[in-house]
Amino acid sequence: MQKEEIYKKFEELDKVAALGGGVVRIDKQHEAGRMTARERIDMLLDKGTFVELDKFVTHRCTNFGMEKNKIPGDGVVSGYGKIEGRQVFVYAYDFTAYGGTLSSTNAAKIVKVQTLALKNGAPVIALNDSGGARIQEGVGSLAGYASIFYQNTMASAYVIFVSIGAMALALISPEVILIAGGSKYSDSRYVTMPIVLSMYYAFLYTLPSSVEYYYKKTKLIALGTMLAAGMNILLNAVFIPAFGYVAAAYTTVACYLLYYLLHVVFAWWVHKGMVYDILQQFLWLGIVSVVSLVTVALTDLFWIRMGLLAALLGVCALWALRHRDQVARTLAVFRRKSA
Questions:
Q1: Contacts within 8 Å (CB) and 24+ apart, 272-276
Q2: Distance (Å, whole) CA 154 – CA 169
Q3: 116 pLDDT exceeds 80?
Q4: So what's the pLDDT on residue 99?
Q5: pLDDT tens digits for range 120-160
Q6: Between the CA of residue 66 and those of 78, 99, 110, 134, 165, what are the distances in Å?
Q7: What radius of gyration, in Å, describes the C-alpha atoms of the chain?
Q8: 208: phi then psi, degrees, rounded to nearest 5
């Protein structure tokens, strides 16, 4: 086959794939007042930046005569592009092809996009116009959902890693002070745990604030900072005269917590919903807070704290062994960002 013939065949296949389920179904989509998957992606992304992946993929189902009915793309349009110059990954269910139902094949397309987004530290946007699982594939389609949900849990590993690190640091912080500062600063070991907790809240703040940055609502970020700073000044004026410098550590904790919660509300208001798994964040916030505050009561009980640290590290080791791929990918992203 000559090069010209190969190019011609490719162009013809590309045109067929671009039509999804065909002209008739596209017209029905428009008559219903809905856009097609590609039209939605074109509207969402910066013009000319979309790069489609696996455009010619077809299903492998042979049940109910499906082997005679194959559409390039298999009901999902996936790839990457830019929004206001920032890289994003995107996938959209194409209702014109099999009602946008999920198959094992197009689930693999979605998982590929999710994996690439994790490796590049970029957001994933899903545009859902789907009839659900493709009934002709049975359990194979449901397994596709499991793969997608698994990738969602992998994307949430950063909060888990930082939370575990914060708890470990809180448990050993009195020893860090004694080693680094000596007996001269030994009294300050009673305030290191709330300082660690404050820095953990500051980390959590970066998640909702990134949504505000994305929408260029920097005035909200400034507003949150001023409100938290004002509360800090007020609490310090009330509690430091009564309890000394130790009170400053705990007023800082309260203000950073307010700082984080304010930006959760601001991000929800800007985006008209939650971007991150807020329940997971609140769960880890509660666990880390309890461990840190319990550590304050155990400041002078070295062996109990070391026992808790050993238990924490043991649980983490078991979890890491069970989720090797998730740990490896997350660490790879950290290394890439720090390079």
A1: 275/208, 275/211, 276/207, 276/208
A2: 24
A3: yes
A4: 83
A5: 778 888 888 877 778 777 777 777 776 776 666 666 666 77
A6: 22, 14, 21, 11, 51
A7: 26
A8: -70, -30
By the 8 A CB rule, do 79 and 104 touch?
Answer: no
- Token pair belonging to 317: 């080791």
Query: Do 80 and 88 meet the contact criterion of CB atoms below 8 Å apart?
Result: yes
Listed residue (16, 18, 79) closest to 52, CA to CA: 79
Task: Give this prediction's pTM.
Answer: 0.58
Task: Note the residue count of the chain.
Answer: 339
Q: Which residues of 230-262 are buried (b: 16+ CB within 10 A; e: fewer)?
A: eebeebbeebeeeeeeebbbbbbbbbbbbbbbb
Quote the strand ranges of the chain, DSSP E. 51-53, 76-83, 86-93, 124-127
Which of 211, 212, 203 shows the shortest CA–CA distance to 158?
Answer: 203
Residue type, 244: G
Give the helix, strand, coil percentages of the chain, each rounded to 5: 70, 5, 20
